[in-house]
Design brief:
- With 386 residues, the chain is α/β, with parallel strands linked by helices.
- It has two domains: 3-248, 3-Layer(aba) Sandwich (Aspartate Aminotransferase, domain 2), CATH 3.40.640.10; 251-384, Aspartate Aminotransferase, domain 1 (Alpha-Beta Complex), CATH 3.90.1150.
- The chain is 37% helix and 15% strand.
- It contains 13 helices and eleven strands.
- It has helices spanning 3-9, 36-40, 54-67, 78-87, 104-113, 130-136, 159-168, 219-232, 238-248, 251-270, 289-295, 312-320, 368-384, and strands spanning 71-75, 95-99, 120-124, 141-147, 172-176, 194-197, 212-216, 275-279, 302-307, 337-341, 358-362.
- α7 (159-168) links the parallel β4 (141-147) and β5 (172-176).
- The mean pLDDT is 95.
Amino acid sequence: MKDNTKLVAAGRPHKRPLHPVNPPVERASTYLFPTYDDYLDGAKNIAYGRLGGPTHRALEETVTALEGGYETRLAPSGLQACTMGVLAFVGAGDHVLMTDSAYDPTRKFCQNFLGRFEVETTYYDPRATGDELAALMRPNTRVVFAESPGSLTFEVQDLPALAAAAHAGGARLVVDNTWSAGYYLKPIALGADVSIQAATKYLVGHADCLLGTITAADEKTANLIYRAALQLGSNVSADDAYLALRGMRTLAARLERHQQTGLELAKFLRKRGEVETVLHPALKSCPGHAIWKRDFTGATGLFGVVLKPVETPALKAFFNAFKHFGMGFSWGGYESLCLHVHPAKNRSAAAWTAPGPVLRFHAGLEDIEDLKVDLERAFHAMAAHA
């Protein structure tokens, strides 16, 4: 079954002749067992609200089908999906290899939380080869964490090489796959043990709920993730699971539009005199383009731009002139966004040395001509305050 069909057909287990198209929201804390035998088998099915109900199972089934994994568990945010995707596999005295381009809260979790429990983290260059990663492996390395492309600077990682190095050292490869929405990249098919998404972004698609997904490649890995979720008391609202499932039904159509608009904006910005570099993996000029072309089947709407050095008043004027681009920390919804980000603050293995400001763009679903006019207006305001 092709992905477009999976997004429509998966997670729709109907047990009665007359049924709604979408699985309904089922809110429950307590489930009753008809017989004692059903009670004994409860752990294999739906036993308690915190473990999820039919709405959660429908979403998990759909994400699993899209990611090509064994099993998916839900988390109440993308960050908890990332943290649980590490916690499930480490204990006191263990070691984690974390990409230097990772989502900053994931870094802070490793530094500030895992460190309290004697789990050490080493950051590696996101462009590291398999041999370079292998040289950083230790006997106690349990997790290699990748994020491809990186959250702010869009380095594309060589997942098959990282997976080979991780597995040779007895570690698991965990990948933050949010950028591709599980549609344009299949980390598990490339050797990853776990694929994580902030479903808040493209899966939900409407900027109205927080959710994370953790998809395991095999049963043993899935069981460890399940135990971690169980013991941490992780729980997701049935309403939020419903919103994500509803969003996934239109994912393919939305991503095509995000891709088209994002590429056109990237090419438009590349021609601007104010722009030093455009960080978009689908452009040949992007350093990670060759790996992107090998492993990905498309691009989404998130990319970066490095401006030539500009004074703060001019940069403020640029942002304040926008009418369509909003300033917001999330992305993946229908709205276009632009944010000034600071990757140099979050690097320890590979320094970020670009002298100009870094902007992160998300191409929404507005008309491309309106977005171009908005950018022209912003650049004119920048020039007026230079």
